[in-house]
Automatic annotation (TrEMBL):
Protein name, entry field: Ras-GEF domain-containing protein
Entry's Gene Ontology BP terms: Ras protein signal transduction
tRNA processing as UniProt keyword: no
PANTHER family referenced in this protein's UniProt entry, alphabetically: EXCHANGE PROTEIN DIRECTLY ACTIVATED BY CAMP, ISOFORM E (PTHR23113:SF327), GUANINE NUCLEOTIDE EXCHANGE FACTOR (PTHR23113)
Presence of keyword Transmembrane: no
Amino acid sequence: MALFHFKLFFATSENELIVHLVGRDKFHPRLAPFNLDLLMRRFNQIQLWVITEIIFASNLNQRLSILCSFIQLSQLAKTKRDLFAMAAINFGLSSLPISRLNYLWNQLPNHLFKQHSECQSLLSPKRGYKNYRFLSNILKTPFVPFIPLILKELDFIYEGLQNQNLINWEKIHLAAKILKSFRLAKGNNNIEDLFEIYNELTFNDEKIIYNLHTVNSPSLLMNLSSEIQKKEENEFEHLC
């Protein structure tokens, strides 16, 4: 999974961020940020995949096993310097359909609960995502950054700082700083080795990576989550 995200990230240039920032309507259609769009769709897909797999598990034991696997996968993504996947998985785990399943979370082994809490702390928006920024500053390059945060910052700079029909040097400086961090995340390393490993993936590996099973219906997922919550609460009452 990390190799696939590295491939998408390396294919995305700073120019695509500029097109996103200024507005697609101001550029020729062939300059549309296609790779950036793929990254954002992938981020949303991973979130939905996490929710779908947990919600559609057949029983509590399977649901708990899947939850544990996703927490471990999030840790592995961090180890592989794929902060993009780490964030997407954790966003899925912290979504309302999953976070409300208190009985499920109470069954989680302590060491995995601690790992999950550490990841949540890394992605906390407190003090301007201080913990995430610290990690990204010390992490060896190349790494896949938390793309939605980069876009959020660019949008804030562009929309939040008024031009008053003048050149806003502060806006230009801040945007340039973000674009530079995006470029530096790719590092100066030779990425051919990454692509060689990626090309060694079997057809089945690639098929699984591309085609994550998702249900894109928030209302359905919430309804099923509510049913699971009630069922587990009733089972817990009977055990007591």
